[in-house]
Specification:
Blueprint lengths: L3 H13 L3 H14 L4 H12 L8 H14 L5 H13 L3 H14 L4 H14 L3 H14 L4 H13 L3 H14 L5 H14 L3 H14 L6 H17 L7 H13 L10 H11 L8 H13 L11 H8 L1 H26 L10 H8 L3 H14 L6 H17 L3 H20 L4 H19 L1
Helix pairs in contact: 1-2, 2-3, 3-4, 3-5, 4-5, 5-6, 5-7, 6-7, 7-8, 7-9, 8-9, 9-10, 9-11, 10-11, 11-12, 12-13, 12-14, 15-16, 15-18, 16-17, 17-18, 18-19, 19-20, 20-22, 21-22, 22-23
Length: about 450
């Protein structure tokens, strides 16, 4: 017989190429000679309770192997997760709670197990208080834990706490490690519908369609997208074309990258006018779309669901493509402002809600005053990182709108936030990185 290490390597390789028969043959051979080989028990349990779950006796044998690994005190949290999911798929999730609880008692900082416990209690079951507590422990241990954020979002949806659900689902999407991103986007869309934020919901459902690789929610998403599109068009609401929405959602998934401000709208309007005599007829409508909206500094219903970016990529040549990409940056600023005004992602209790409302309504001096006043009056809700982020974003928007003098005031507020963050640094490398942000904002302010 080959040594156990060799058998395990062969079984692992067989599973990597999804050769189920070879995997189980090698695992069973290994377990015959090493009955407590923890990796083999886990792999056998997983394969038999998932791929072969409908084969006679396979599910029962798989669960027995997972239990054997747990009894042998494995420290691999995948085992407890596989065990809980196996029982939950058979409608027996409650029976797994005691073992999972015992695991979390023994491993109190194991975020995976805490997530499994919270999921069993509050998503599979209805113990929302205990389940929410377990999930909150999971994200305190591992802040960017996408699966726990998704499950927290689902719990808040059961509680009908839509703002909290939206916050958690957005964090799940941005985590980069959410096992079911299509579900996170779908649930986010549902929470946004519940808040009456139909354009935000449409964007979420569109992205869910794109990342739902197995088509789990195909019909549901198709119906939701069609219904929302119809309602929004009926009410003459501006909505992004699918190509632009995809780009915007990808930015959301990645988190907001620090970048240069979008090109001023007046410059974009002029570029669109100058290109009229250099492009084919198929691109003229796209140029008109950009020129009119850039000149008015607003998104107009008659251009709803139009994508000049896409049209110029197809028919505008090199200069047209460059203009299309530049317009997309400005488009995102205009669309975000529109949503902040008509579908605000904040309420009156949100830190800086008055500043956000004023900014969305282009009461820029009021927004700046609120930013400055609240900075001193409510330090508990105005973390310097918030001032840093909003100040820079709003400064960028004002550069786009052709208001560079006002932009400098917002960059100064952002610079204050960056300086405070730099002063809190706990290491030399962190301090240098944060001081680089201060210098970058100073350059923006002085431009």
């Amino acid at each position: 017989m080959p040594p156990p290490a060799e058998l395990w390597a062969a079984a692992d390789a067989a599973w990597a190429r999804r050769d189920v028969d070879a995997t189980l043959r090698l695992v069973d051979e290994l377990l015959a000679h090493s009955p407590t080989h923890l990796d083999a028990l886990n792999l056998s349990g997983f394969v038999r309770t998932t791929v072969l779950a409908d084969s006679p006796g396979a599910w029962e044998q798989g669960v027995a192997h997972l239990e054997r690994a747990l009894d042998a005190n494995t420290t691999d949290s995948r085992v407890i997760a596989n065990y809980a999911e196996a029982l939950a798929r058979r409608g027996r999730g409650a029976a797994a709670v005691s073992r999972v609880t015992a695991w979390t008692d023994k491993h109190p900082t194991d975020a995976v197990a805490l997530n499994v416990l919270g999921w069993l209690l509050a998503v599979v079951g209805d113990d929302l208080v205990a389940g929410k507590a377990a999930l909150e422990r999971a994200v305190r241990t591992h802040y960017r834990f996408g699966d726990a954020r998704l499950n927290l979002g689902r719990v808040f949806m059961k509680l009908r706490d839509w703002p909290s659900a939206i916050e958690q689902l957005t964090l799940a999407i941005q985590s980069g490690n959410c096992w079911r991103p299509h579900e996170a986007w779908t649930r986010l869309g549902e929470a946004l519908v519940a808040r009456g934020q139909l354009r935000r919901a449409l964007g979420a459902f569109r992205r869910a369609q794109e990342v739902d690789a197995k088509g789990e929610y195909t019909r549901q998403l198709f119906d939701a997208v069609n219904a929302l599109t119809h309602v929004l068009h009926q009410h003459r609401r501006f909505i992004l074309h699918v190509f632009d929405e995809t780009a915007r959602n990808k930015e959301l998934e990645a988190g907001r990258a620090r970048r240069s401000p979008p090109e001023p709208l007046a410059v974009l309007a002029e570029r669109a006018r100058d290109l009229r005599s250099h492009v084919g007829e198929q691109a003229l409508t796209a140029l008109e779309c950009i020129e009119e909206q850039a000149s008015q500094r607003a998104l107009l219903p008659r251009w709803s669901d139009q994508s000049p970016t896409f049209d110029l990529e197809q028919h505008g040549g090199d200069e047209g493509r460059a203009l299309g990409l530049a317009w997309r940056g400005a488009l995102f600023e205009l669309y975000e402002e529109l949503l902040e005004r008509e579908e605000p992602a904040f309420d009156d209790t949100t830190p800086l809600s008055a500043a956000r409302k004023a900014m969305a309504e282009r009461r820029w001096d009021d927004a700046l005053t609120e930013l400055r006043v609240n900075r001193g009056a409510h330090p508990e809700s105005l973390h310097p990182e918030v001032v840093f982020d909003l100040g820079e974003r709003w400064g960028d928007r004002l550069v786009c709108f052709g208001e560079p003098a006002r932009a400098r005031d917002f960059y100064a507020a952002a610079e204050w936030g960056a300086q405070v963050l730099a002063s809190w640094s706990t290491s030399g490398a962190e301090g240098l990185a944060r001081m680089a942000e201060v210098e970058r904002l100073k350059q923006k302010r002085q431009a």
